Amino acid sequence: MTFAGWVGPAGNCKGETKYVDAYGVFNDVVVTGWIEIELKDYTAKMSLDANKLQLTSGTTCEASKRTCIGGDGSTAFWSTVDTGDCGLNKYSVIYDGFMDKVEDSGEKDVIYTLETEEYAFALMKKYVESVCGLDLIHSEHPRLLIVENAGISPMLRKTDLAAQNIDQFAYTNAKFLYVEKHLKGQLKEMYYKIINSKCELERQVLENTLSIATSQPAEVARKIMKEEGYTGVVAAEVLHIVKCTRVEVHIRKTNECYEQLPVSYGNETLFLSPRTRILVGNGKQITCEGRMPSMFKIGEQWYRSLPDIIDAPQPEILAPREMPKWKYVSPESLAIGGIYSERDTRKLRDLIVFPLEKGAVLNKIRRGATGQQVNTDGISISPFLNEKILHEIAESTWSKISAGFIKFGSVRAGIIGIFMVFRLIKLLVDTAIHSYALYELYGFSILLLGAIWDSVSHLLMHLGHQRQHREHRVARNEGNYDPTAPNE
């Protein structure tokens, strides 16, 4: 391409009077060169509310213009996002499914909760906005909306969530809202558990107390009023509680033991009833027993009657043994769950961390390609190995291994062949030697077949030698009885 001057088809040319570029000013020159056009297709981040679009070069453009020149000199073109007739396309469907709707009749609140392995959030209903027939329920978080029965509407469909559309602040704030709602629910449950336990206990106490009203009205009056000095009078189906006047009495000595505490009031000898502290004229005499005496609590000290009133050790105090039934339930999915699933948050993490790790990853690849030592922690080439490549690698590896086995088998077969020839020669030589030895011992007989086996040959030769030895010994013995003389 000619940038300055003119070049004819016959090779003639004419220079430009004046040419200016980044390298300087030139006179009467012909400038030729080429233009390289690079096309890129990528996804950019756009704010529908602010009408802004950010290029990868960092340049911020006006989204409605559909074109912009970046800071690196490149020109970008894009198409605007259609928000739809009702503007619903500017929303992303985070979750689509069933969730719990809890209505608090006391506080008149409606709370939507969800707790699964991937999602965990709790949002409170604030107000409802109708858009194109859909009721958008606004929550405490201005960017989080709820639509009930959204599955019947074709305008809302859950799609794969882009990492650029993940709002980290909404994710964090939703976690705080979920924790607050969770703690509120747990504290309410604990409060109701305590109140119910208390009411149940008081109900049982009242039932037990009223069951003995006819036989022990004074004891019932003490339990109801929760202090001494009261007595009761049963009249038909009611119990009249009467408060007695407080007076000062003195303990008096007796020679007998009583179920009541002997006292004196003025010049009268009376008895102080246990528990109710009511003065009566007559006391119930009992047997004095040192191991199980009558005991009374006066002030903060315990006393026993033997019949003298002396100090007594404090008895064991009975207390309710009911264990609390409330148990705090920890939100197990709080660490990984939220308004976004773990897969969506991993996309956001990769989007944030990848520019920081890009230089380190490229450096590791460069060092590995040049043969330098590389720490491969965190780097995997598995995404580059598809099924076809792995199949080719497996076939190539197996062909090399099988070729090695074939070569090894051929060499081994040659060695075994040589060894077998040697063994055959040895067998023939051994058979000939054994046949000669057996022939000397047994002559020409069927025993010569034993020469084929070493063990049989050795056994036959051993037996033949023993037989010859016996024959020689017999011959020597017979020679002793038949002496001979030399011939004359």
TrEMBL record:
Domain of life, per lineage: Eukaryota
Matching Pfam families: Monjiviricetes_fusion (PF24664)
Chain segments annotated as transmembrane: 409-429, 441-463
UniProt KW keywords: Membrane, Transmembrane, Transmembrane helix
Protein name per UniProt: Glycoprotein
Species of provenance: Trichogramma kaykai
Higher taxonomy: Eukaryota, Metazoa, Ecdysozoa, Arthropoda, Hexapoda
